[in-house]
Design a protein that fits this description.
The chain is of the alpha+beta class. The chain has 14 helices and 27 strands. Strands 10, 11, 13, 14, 15, 16, 17, 18, 19 and 20 form a ten-stranded mixed beta sheet that branches. A five-stranded mixed beta sheet has the order 3-7-6-5-4, with helices on one face. The protein is flat and about 80 Å long. The two termini are about 45 Å apart. Residues about 1-15, about 65-80, about 190-205 and about 240-275 have low confidence and may be disordered.
């Protein structure tokens, strides 16, 4: 059952009875800690998020004494006043909001976190619904997470939640509450009639009940505890004692040496490392990929010449588990900056391009650790969210990157690999060599910005032990995992739409050749796959030929979608953008009704407003500055040059579909 909140008007009182506040904190401690845990950033990891949640709640107690002597005695028989809970909740949310700043987080880490030595603590693991809800909250901004917690955990009204956020310091709480209400409403179970028609069942992360927020997965007071690495901890304690002795000896020696010179003690580039952490790393048997229904990173065996180099693995594990180490690190959107506490799976360990490289996977995140083989360069760690990968999106990982090329580590189920220019659909695939460990030769990467010619892509073919005659395209967009390119042909009358198919056929390659340069705007966005959907083909005025309307949908690993509507006129010229929308379900299985418009100049010089919609539309309309309407899926009217009109469409039931603005 939902936790019932006290009915609280207003915000923190000006004078707070510290004894009553302590009573309120003890009474509502579990609720406040859960509130903090839900709103804290996910890149802390579950262990640190639990400790931080308890820390911010325990430090929410004010130091001010009662303003009126004897006030505590006069009220000790009464129930804890709502005002004290309100004040504590405001202080907790402010402290949780401050954790969004990494610099503030690091500077306050020692004073905020309770001391827990020798243990890692975490809530009870949840199921698919809890994991999907946690992903949705991780994608949301802090004010939205806080609003969801207030609406669900404290059962606040929209107005009440907005007031609390305003008291915390959120500048525009209304937008956060609106986004939170959408998440809450989308999380409620819907009737089968309300579910969008689709050939496949909904994604596991779609329509998750927000009531899952009340599950033990989000209860930081109901914890599991596991020891940290015992051998590593023992080794570190011995190393610390040895370091103290060496420091003392060095100090005494410095006094005895002439001319103020000292001996160098322990000047190696890497300190001593224990192999204990490396022993805990999971390893998949070499042939598991050919006999499993789960073909993803969990099926990758450990490959490379240094899979038994325990010191290297230990350094990689320390860099991954401790975000405060002096390692250059970067996290792609949605990825945690440190480990989750689960033993990771080893995918690769070896030398590539003058660096020692280790690839790890912890079921949610893939990590690449690298360090120079010689010289004084810094170690680097890159983490990327890869949860839910499949036979295509788990087919390759960037194991090495330079300014103009990458090397890929191919999945064990890849039988053939080649490269091609996406802008030249008629050219043949060029073979791509790879080592026995699966590391490819250099693969050129598309130039960033400006001229995108050429646009190299990798064409891979799966082993027949996985699937027959399955070739697909991947392209580098600056991430750890290349993006999968797919294609959907124009709709056929009387034929039910099919899911996206591989972009290796002639029509797909020709379509992508005209739209490839639009991929440049997706770099660094954590893109998982991009689908090229031809949703309409329109006969142009003045018998100027046929135009193609495309929705290019980029899905990220976080689940968010970005779409760009493209207009491909007659000929072979590059596609024109007809509008962009972010964080939308449009052009997916759950957003199949779309419309877009663009201004177009005919060969005669006349200007037109063109619009087209998907096949379920029965009417297309245009608003100011061009007012027009047409039955059916298409609209073509004379318009001033460069007219930027808003277009919309209607379905047979009367529902309206808005085009991009």
């Amino acid at each position: 059952m939902p936790l019932r909140r006290p009915t609280v008007p207003g915000s923190e009182p000006r004078v707070l009875d510290v004894e009553l506040a302590e009573a309120a904190l003890m009474k509502h401690y579990a609720r406040l800690v859960r509130l903090a845990y839900v709103t804290l950033p996910r890149d802390l990891g579950r262990h640190r998020r639990v400790l931080t949640a308890h820390g911010v709640v325990q430090r929410a107690l004010p130091h001010r004494r009662p303003a009126v002597p004897g006030l505590r005695r006069a009220r000790e028989a009464q129930q804890t006043a709502p005002a004290e809970y309100t004040a504590l909740r405001t202080r907790v949310l402010r402290a949780a909001m401050a954790q969004e700043s990494r610099s503030v987080r690091l500077s306050r880490a020692r004073s905020i976190l309770p001391a827990v030595w020798g243990l890692r603590v975490f809530p009870q693991p949840g199921g698919a619904e809890e994991m999907a809800l946690d992903r949705a909250l991780a994608r949301a901004d802090w004010p939205v997470r806080a609003a969801v917690a207030l609406l669900v955990l404290d059962e606040e009204s929209a107005e009440g939640a907005g007031g609390v956020l305003r008291a915390v310091g959120v500048a525009e709480p209304e937008g956060a509450v609106l986004a939170a209400r959408r998440l809450v409403e989308e999380g409620r179970p819907s009737s089968p009639e309300a579910r969008p028609a689709a050939e496949e069942p909904p994604d596991p992360g779609t329509g998750v009940p927000v009531s899952a927020l009340l599950a033990p997965e989000f209860d930081p007071c109901l914890l599991h505890a596991r020891p940290t690495d015992l051998l590593r901890r023992r080794h570190r304690m011995r190393s610390a004692a040895t370091a103290v002795l060496l420091a003392g000896c060095a100090a005494v020696t410095a006094l005895a040496l002439p001319d103020g010179t000292t001996d160098r003690v322990g000047s190696g580039r890497h300190g001593p490392a224990s192999a204990a952490g490396a022993e805990a790393v999971r390893r998949t048997p070499p042939d598991a990929w050919a006999d499993t229904a789960r073909v993803d990173f969990t099926a990758w065996p450990a490959r490379g010449a240094r899979t038994d180099d325990r010191d290297l693995l230990e350094r990689a594990l320390r860099a991954w588990s401790d975000p405060d180490r002096r390692v250059r690190r970067s996290a792609e959107p949605g990825a945690a900056s440190s480990g989750t506490g689960r033993p990771p799976r080893l995918l690769f360990a070896g030398d590539v391009d003058d660096r020692a490289v280790v690839l790890l996977h912890d079921d949610l995140t893939t990590v690449r650790y690298s360090e120079p083989l010689s010289g004084d360069g810094s170690p680097e760690l890159v983490s990327a969210l890869t949860e839910g990968a499949d036979v295509t999106t788990a087919a390759a990982i960037v194991v090495s990157r330079s300014a103009d090329a990458v090397r890929l580590l191919l999945a064990p189920w890849i039988a053939e690999a080649g490269t091609r220019d996406l802008l030249a659909p008629d050219t043949d695939v060029r073979a791509l060599d790879s080592s026995g460990s699966g590391v490819t030769g250099p693969v050129p990467v598309p130039s960033a910005g400006g001229d995108c010619r050429p646009w190299p892509v990798v064409q891979l073919r799966s082993s027949p032990r996985i699937v027959e005659d399955h070739a697909f395209l991947l392209t580098d967009l600056g991430g750890l995992s290349p993006a999968h390119l797919t294609y959907m042909p124009p709709p056929e009358p009387g034929v039910r739409p099919r899911p996206p198919r591989e972009a290796t056929g002639p029509d797909a390659l020709e379509g992508w050749a005209r739209a490839a340069c639009r991929l440049d705007g997706l770099r660094g966005k954590g893109v998982r796959a991009v689908n090229h959907w031809v949703f309409a083909q329109q006969e142009l005025p003045e018998r100027a030929g046929r135009a193609t309307w495309v929705c290019a949908r980029a899905d990220t690993w976080r689940g968010r979608g970005r779409v760009e509507y493209l207009f491909l006129g007659p000929g072979s010229g590059a596609a024109r953008s007809a509008g962009v929308r972010a964080n939308t379900a449009e052009c997916s299985r759950f957003g199949q009704d779309v419309v877009a418009g663009i201004d177009w100049r005919a060969p005669s010089g006349a200007s037109y407003l063109l619009a087209a919609g998907s096949r379920s539309l029965t009417r297309v309309e245009a608003a100011s500055p061009v007012r027009a309407a047409a039955d059916g899926r298409f609209l073509a009217v004379r318009a001033p040059n460069g007219a930027d009109a808003q277009v919309s469409g209607r379905l047979s039931g009367g529902a309206e579909v808005d085009g991009p603005r």
